[in-house]
Amino acid sequence: MKYHPSRKNNRKFLLRLAFFALTTVALGLISYFGILGWFRAFAVGISGSSEDWSLLDGFVGAISLALLVGGLTYTVLDRIRAEYAEEREKNKLSYEIYQAIFEKLTDPEEESARRWILANMEVKNDDEAIESWYQRMHARIMEGKDGDPSETPDGQKFVKRTLNCLDYIGFIANHYWEIGENSLDWLSPPIAKVWSRLGPYVRHVRTLRGALDYYIPAEYIGNLCIQWRRDKGLDDEKYVEKTP
After folding, report:
1. Rounded distance, CA 77 to CA 60, Å?
2. Which of 79, 205, 225, 235 is geometrically suited to a Cys-Cys bond with 191, CB 3.0 to 4.6 A?
3. Does the pLDDT of residue 178 top 80, yes or no?
4. Domain boundaries in the chain?
5. Does residue 110 contact residue 164 with C-beta atoms inside 8 Å?
6. By C-alpha distance, which of 44, 20, 197, 169 is closest to 102?
7. What is the pLDDT of residue 134?
8. What's the gap between Cα 233 and its chain centre?
9. CA atoms within 13 A on the CB side of 200
10. How far is C-alpha 231 from the geometric centre of its chain's CA atoms?
11. What is the 3-state secondary structure (H, E, C) of the chain?
């Protein structure tokens, strides 16, 4: 005899359907007798007779009003609960993003890369031609390239590493993280310092390559941090060697 799993599934379905039907009938009967009992108590309280059916309209109106008030109260409380849960989830996500960015910024290799940029790249003066400034900075970044063509110069490694870090932070900030005053307060100093040096360099490379999407997220977070410090009246920090 062959086993037919579909028959077993049909039996389960029929049993569930019968249980649902019996439960519905039972709840209906309980509700009917319960409401009838409430009405009799209501009629006795109003007219002294449990058979005064003229009070039925008033009883139904009272129940309808109670259901309406209860429904509205439940809706308001449910909305408050949902907003509270959403706010908690948002705060949790914000903290997790903060932790990830904090660990990335304070990574020793990231700090070493930013320190090299601060020590070797200059802030471009407004009256200086971008081409001459770029040539000087690019020469510093590529120092050591002529010695061993197979080796990537430290400057190029550090600049690339820092740009990738800023690109990551900028993408997260632009799409998943609502950056507030408190976040920019600790985020802006290390980013603004390096972007004031890297910003003109990146924009000129973008022009030379014709790559309109070259490190756009990095530019977003860099400009955001610089503008925030300017709005707060905070001067650009100067790099001083042999300091933490």
Report:
1. 25
2. 225
3. no
4. 5-88, 106-231
5. no
6. 169
7. 94
8. 29
9. 20
10. 25
11. CCCCHHHHHHHHHHHHHHHHHHHHHHHHHHHHHHHHHHHHHHHHHHHCCCCCHHHHHHHHHHHHHHHHHHHHHHHHHHHHHHHHHHHHHHHHHHHHHHHHHHHHHCCHHHHHHHHHHHHHCCCCCCCCCHHHHHHHHHHHHCCCCCCCCCCCCHHHHHHHHHHHHHHHHHHHHHHCCCCCHHHHHHHHHHHHHHHHHHHHHHHHHHHHHCCCCCCHHHHHHHHHHHHHHHHCCCCCCCCCCCCC
Residue 66: CB partners within 8 Å, gap ≥ 6? none
* Token digits of residue 148: 């061993």
Percent of the chain with pLDDT over 70: 72
Written as one letter, the residue type at 109 is E
Contacts of 168 (CB under 8 A, 6+ apart): 104, 217
Q: Which of 75-79, 167-171, 182-186, 240-244 has the lowest mean pLDDT?
A: 240-244
At residue 123, what is the residue type?
V
Rounded to 10°, the helix 56-105/5-47 angle is 130
The pLDDT tens digits of the residues spanning 31-79 come to: 666 666 666 666 666 656 555 555 556 666 666 666 677 777 878 878 8
pLDDT tens digits for range 90-108:
777 777 888 888 888 889 9
Fill in the amino acid letter for 132: S
Q: Is the pTM of this model over 0.85?
A: no
